[in-house]
Amino acid sequence: MTRRLLIVEDDPGLQSQMRWCFSEDLQVSVASDRDSALTCLRREEPQVVTLDLGLPPDPGGASEGFRLLEEIIQLAPMTKVIVVTGREEKENAVKAIGMGASDFYQKPLDADILSFVVNRAFRIAELEQENQVLSQQRNGTNIKGIVAASPQMLSICRTLEKVAPTDVTTLITGETGTGKELLARALHDLSHRASKPFAAINCAAIPENLLESELFGFEKGSFTGATQTKKGKIESANGGTLFLDEIGDMPMPLQAKLLRFLQERVIDRVGSVTPIPVDVRVVCATHRDVRNLITEGVFREDLYYRISEITLDVPSLRERDGDALVIARSLLKSLGDQMDRPNLSFSEDAVNAISNYAWPGNVREMINKVKRATIMAEGKRVTAGDLELSCDTSGTPNQLNLRQVRENAEKQAIIQALQTCNYNMAQASRLLGVTRPTLYNLTDKYRIETSQTTSA
Ligand SMILES: Nc1ncnc2c1ncn2[C@@H]1O[C@H](COP(=O)(O)OP(=O)(O)OP(=O)(O)O)[C@@H](O)[C@H]1O
């Protein structure tokens, strides 16, 4: 990476001395007032700035320098600012450090010391950048398969680690696709039952008349078609964990039978009156509000208390601070490896779009979108368009330069116009007030899809 230094100094003699000190190793730009310094900052994006506080129109004071320091820190917070002060201005140096300057240097100029201070600032800037990249990739939990960095999800993971070794019946609630089944498996994997079976059944997916025999098994001849005795899910989970997904959809008559099992820990196969003892840990999940179901009279209150000895309420992806991006990056890596498209990364508009989107289908929806983007991306950068997300940047604070603002706004307007016109290029170009060839050029430039594709 090119090391870029901006020298903000109004004295031409000092300017050339400093330029001479650094121009061999660094890409140096020089500004002699606040305005030109901000222009250079936006244009060059230097990692390090040396800032003489005494700038015109207040060369004898420090007001203009402080103003500029504040603006640099607001616009480019990762930039390391070294404040240059006169010998008698210790107070200003201290104030500048308090405002966020990374270091200070006192005149008169000593080339060796100044080089030392500037090189150190570059090193810190580089370390911080590496650290930022690493922390974006970091997974905050060691639970297999679960990617999480948000305090909300990390707290669920900590509870899960405490609950797993116990045998308490656990209810996991949360919107569809939030990872309820994944957490149920983690409860099993982290328990003393890990080497025994994990049997899962989706109570909503099986017709009511078959669910009983699926769960409890049946004896040969107990109904037409029962040509041989068969164990149910509960029995097949013996010694391990039984996962009852969508428990909120379990029909009332079966709820009574399940309650009896939870109380007595024995089952009767369909067509049999001989109770069979079964040792299983029960984990249930639902996306429904069970309390509402109880009020509506379709879920037994006594069963609810049995299954919810501990409840894990899994937050939706939009309620987790920062998880969307961490999970998306992890998915991009694993899906990219699987599909032989390694080293893909998200473009800036994709990062914004991922963070701003509400993810109604949670992680499952994200898997679909990232899978699609992995296939569609041209080159190594995955854009918001590849993910079929619009890049709304209206809330993005402190845009660095006009290029960034203009490109983001342009992309967003084009995606919106295309969606509004159902991907009819002639209509979209009229809506945007440009010719069709111009629209094609722009969609090429920003790699925006020009036809509607369904998610993979
Ligand atoms: N935190 C996470 N990290 C990585 N993958 C996740 C995470 N949460 C969910 N997933 C993945 O998302 C998909 C959906 O998760 P899962 O089936 O556990 O959701 P669910 O809440 O049980 O959904 P439903 O209510 O629709 O059954 C799975 O492929 C799962 O592996």
From TrEMBL:
Organism this protein belongs to: Marinobacter gudaonensis
CDD domains with a match to the protein in the record: AAA, REC
Protein name (record): Two-component system, NtrC family, response regulator
Domain Response regulatory: 4-122
InterPro entries per UniProt: AAA+_ATPase, AAA_lid_NorR, CheY-like_superfamily, Homeodomain-like_sf, HTH_Fis, P-loop_NTPase, PEP-CTERM_resp_reg, Sig_transdc_resp-reg_receiver
GO biological process assignments: phosphorelay signal transduction system; regulation of DNA-templated transcription
GO-annotated molecular function: ATP binding; sequence-specific DNA binding
PTM-bearing positions, type 4-aspartylphosphate: D52
Nucleotide-binding in keyword set: yes
Record-annotated Sigma-54 factor interaction domain positions: 146-375
Keywords for this protein: ATP-binding, Nucleotide-binding, Phosphoprotein, Transcription, Transcription regulation
